[in-house]
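Data availability (excerpt). All sequences and predicted token strings are deposited with the supplementary files. A representative entry, Protein kinase domain-containing protein, is shown inline so that the format can be inspected without opening the archive.
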Amino acid sequence: MDAPGPHISGNILILDHSNRHFFLWFSVGQFFSLHFFYFFLIMLVAGKNKNRMLHTDSNMVTENGNDIISPAKKCDLDPTTIKRFAIGASHTVYITNDGEAFGIGDDKDFVFGTRQPRNYNKVVKIEFQGFENQKFVDVVCGMFYTMYELDDGTLIYCSRFCQKRRPAIHRLKEGDPIFLTGSYFRPGVIDSNGHAYLFDPKNPYNDALKIIITDQQFFDMCIGDLNEDEPNFVILCTRNRKVYGNYKLNHNSDKFVEITQFQNVSVKKVVGNYCHAVVLLNSGFSAYIFACNISPSSELFTLFNGGKFHFIQKFVRTKIVHASTNSDSVLFITSQGDIIVSGINNGGCLFTSNITDINKYLSLKRIRYENQFFTYSWSGYSASCLLAGMKPPIHRGYEYFMFHNQGMKIPNDITWNEKKDNHEEIENQEASIEFWQNQLIHAKTQLKMSHEIKVYTQEEIASMSQKNEIFNSSKTKVIEVDDEKVIKFFIYNDINIHDVFQEWFETYRIYFELNHPCLARIDGVYFGDDSCPPCILMEKMNINLFYLVKGETENQFIRLSDTRKFQILLEMIYIFKFLHSKNQLLYRCLKPQNIILTKSYDVKITDLGVNHLDEYKSDIDYIFEIFKGKVPPEIEYVAKDSSKYDEKVDMFLFGSLLNFLFTGKYPNVTKEGTQISNYLTNRKIKNIIEQCLCFDPEERPTFSHILEELSTGIFLLFDDIDDFLINEKKNQIIQSEEIMEM
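Structure token line:
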């Protein structure tokens, strides 16, 4: 099922609408299947593309006749369906959310385990005899091998050294595999005891070499090698964040020593391949690189003596959240969603758009691609893939050792998965809020901002005098803070963060861009921290139309002056005409409670966003109640199927709204016609209401049509109307709209 969000019906952008009370709330919950509505959710590929191994057609052929992708392009895979992905030298493999494995590329040498020795330019399903009922969990690819992990802990090792296309089947003796990694020539595994294993690249059937360091548990490992004889280095990161290395990191010895550079810092992850490795710190504002036997000379890749890591000075003010390596280069992902590349651009694998950069050396070059927000990268021999608009896959070693294996007591009434989700929510809360902040900053550069929005600090929010509580629910709380502002807190709960961020951002993107006088004004935002949830500050509105007309009790009908009625009518027409004709937005739930008014009776519309479906359904139920179920069939689909209705839904509900404004009652609607209260004597207003409430949507007018109809002799429609005030309001709106079109 698709996540709820903005969608297209005809030429109209549909925005789910329900929350009537000034603000929206977002939480941090599910992370892996997270979509961004503003940034396209894609996998972008570049580099070597033999046999369509990157899941799309090549767009260039080199002088040597090699198929490559440069500039980068979107591949055919849907990242929301994929659990794991890996790139080899001439093949790629992915695992679906359903636990199936698929491969593409050159498998003449059994490097990814198909039954027939051939080149595959279309994906082929991977199956192994005797394991048909098992699901795939993880995969790692090298130059000449692929290793799969099954859900029962079995490791299946496919390699060019396998005999008669028979895979090597491995089971770890003391623990289950919880993290797969590998270099070009050999795979590696970390088990549930925190022990590391290196597999034989030349004889895949041999038992793996086990690595143990007394009193240490590993959660991360990277391997670098230049050939199949011995590793260039192995780097291990322990649960207590110590880093160990051997060979080139220890005078070519196979013994492991602690790398003292990282004794006083918290290491997040280690990545490496071939002849270089990268260490990322938890803070993200520092990255260290180790390189050996690198021929190109640059400020990044040089031959460092004594097994030391080199601190990258340029990253002091750039937060790095992920990195991946191939033979001669590194891709860094920043918290702003950009990529920074360095090394040899083999086959265009570093995502540059300039063809002259192919096979050239690039040094810490920042790459942007069509305003995408990148979150993760995969690197192969001379091919790369970027994930955009989606939370990156979780590091399995970190997940296991930083939570599951730390001795936390799990209550009997909470399952392991629920407990894990709860922990992940708490563990990632701060990082996720920062993640969204960076997305907002990234997106703001693409928006036409109408006025400056203040970003408040926690101290400023705490110092505000909180007066009356206006609204409180399980998701939001709205509090009056002074005579001009209200503040809405967004309460952390189990709401999917994708849906809520869509709602939050799209709503206020509209306010930023439109700045219509009949739209509520946003004064500031606060992103939240452990002590205070996120909130948004907005101008205070005094009352909604329902209470203005009905009063505090059900039968207390307030007789508004003709001037006020027409002012409200005119402003509603202008704002909804503006939304329909200029911006192709539907409101979808026009009812008195959703029309907010200031002290001077100016109409203010709030919550033009993608709101929670359960709340919106309550609005639909309300509509059925006031019409006693007698509504056009299209209304039934408003919360279900946007293809079955258009802007005429707003027109129908606007007719009901007008009837309520002028009579204090809802109309009696039937297929045969509409009965309007005798309280309403104005024939022109009656005709407009009847037209709006037609069962056939084709017979309903547009807001432009209504405005045109009222523009002739409007001051003759009512007995007592202040033509100066009405003209002043009208001119203010027209001038504002003209300014926005400039």
